[in-house]
Predict the 3D structure of the following.
Amino acid sequence: MLLIWRIIREAAWPGITVLIAHGIRAKIFGHEPYVDPAMHLLGGVAAAFFFTRMPRLVPQFLGELPPLTLYLFAFGLTAASAVVWEFGEFLSDVFLGTRNQRSIGNTMRDLFNDMFGAIIFIIGEIVLRSKSTVNGQNQTRRIRVGTEPFGGKLPEPFKRQPTVSPFVTESASC
């Protein structure tokens, strides 16, 4: 349960915010022509944010991804989620009688805006990360020289324990 709240707090909040804003603004201003395209653009940004944060929150599934792989992963999953969203709109139109997809042009515009939003986010993150790095060192995580956690001494549970190998005996000599 704690992981779910952590995911919401650190990765999913932009998507939730976009969905709520979309609902409110669509009621006030109408769904087309301005609210829907803007919300798909922001949805692409939110989805890319989510998909770049998730591998960091649950590294046991994918490990630590190199930046290029992470950004391609985020873009690909944002595009896939946009397609699934458009399928949902289509099924809603067919079975519930809504009119979310008025034409193929509307659908293509929505997909374009979702992917363009992902590109905007990824470029923005690359630029911000490059500005926080000087001489190959991340400036946001720099520790001052001479300061060590725990006063330079690790608490007992964190001390390195000697390893015992079943393949090496003490009497073995080289």
Notes: The two ends are 53 Å apart (CA to CA).
